[in-house]
Request: fold
Amino acid sequence: MTATPEIGMVVVQPTAFCNIACTYCYLPDRSNKHVIAQTTVTRLFEQIFASGWASSEITVIWHAGEPLVVPVSFYREAFATIERMRPASVHVRHSFQTNGTLIDADWCALFKDWNVGVGVSLDGPRELHDLHRKSRSGKGTFDKTIAGIRCLREHDVPFHVISVLSHTSLDQPEELLDFYLSEGIDQICFNVEESEGDHVSSLFHGPELRRRYAAFLRTFWHRARESGRVRFLREIDLALPRMFRPEGVPTRNIQTEPLAMLNVDSHGNVSSFSPELLGLKNAAYGDYLLGNINFQTLQEIRDVCLASPLHRDIAAGVEACSRSCDYFSVCGGGAPVNKLFENGSLTSTVTSYCTLTQMVPTDLILEAYDRLEHSPAAAVSAANALSLSVTGGSAAPEPSRMP
Amino acid sequence: MFKTRRSLRTLANLLPSGALGLSVGLAAADAAAGTSVPERQEGSVAQRLQSLRLDVSVALEQYRKDGEPFVAVDSEERLAWWGNGGWRNGGWRNWGNGWHNW
Reply:
């Protein structure tokens, strides 16, 4: 018996178009300027709210291509529509992942009016950022992105950054931290350049990557916490609750649960599981599509999903992970898109992505916890750091966002 | 186990501060140990994770017995951040393997 879906994250692609052309981008359709219709947004949320499957908190992520190429007025209308339909028991939080180049005062007003979560893609200082994040004419985008970030700060809009780590930046944790602090950036996430879709990473499969990334993350974590000026370091701070939970409380992996993540493109096509699958082609899996929200109900889409080879193989992969991986209780079965692109099969298990996003943080945290046991000095340091963080003001309000 | 292990005592102090406090405390402990190679731990990673969770359960039980739950010493915001609903709501539900590209 398959559990009732619990929709906690809706990834909406307002347009596939992106105004820049990063060298590591995996999106195949980023020159297509089609924009999602308001009627599609309305239909989507009518279906979600009517289904009874909405979680008490839904994060709506407007993402991929560049969501800010669509006018502010579009989102004001869409947000108002969703708000009118929203049951009182469901809280909806909108979120953007943007390259930041188009942020201005009007966008900041929207972000503040609707308490929008904002993530900006920024790879570090100019020399790192401009290596890969280029305009369509091939120039670096650093100046425009940093102008957007400064605009957010001027308008007191909270934001986080996602930085893609490359060969070069893996050797520069301290320089990266110094840069973030100089720009007032205090919520930080890292992705390691990976192979997905059209993009094949030269970095991702190197034998030394695990060791290099662990060294990077450990140094960055230590220095960031020592500074007292970083509120959120995703790689560690989201791993902690997955590890330090009471015995018997299960973990969740929304990338492997049918419809836990609902991913919708600008034409209303619906997918689930890893959002990166949306827009990719694969005959065996029907291009990863489960239906179209303009023409089908969510119940019909769910039925298609449960009967699909896509679901069957993802479930087999999770089962294989549960039997073979020491880290299963932390991650719950991996990321399907990475299994597919790294190993060629959704039924496979460990990937480089697993290694970096799950195993490395888990190992670092376990090691630190063990040091509490074996080193009196370490235990004293932990206690002192805690008292300083609480009394010294670095324990700022946490980001009000879902994991 | 709770009363005999140093790490448990420290854990009991760190848990009420939420993920941020735990992150700060563990980073400090790790940094204080410097570059020395940690003692090799017994058991697999899966066993160590299970042991850690038993530690958390023991700490929670101790708080309950002592009548000093986390809620008495921490802010609503920080509790909520521990797990979308916090301890008192039986949180953790949504702490899964989220999507990294946002």
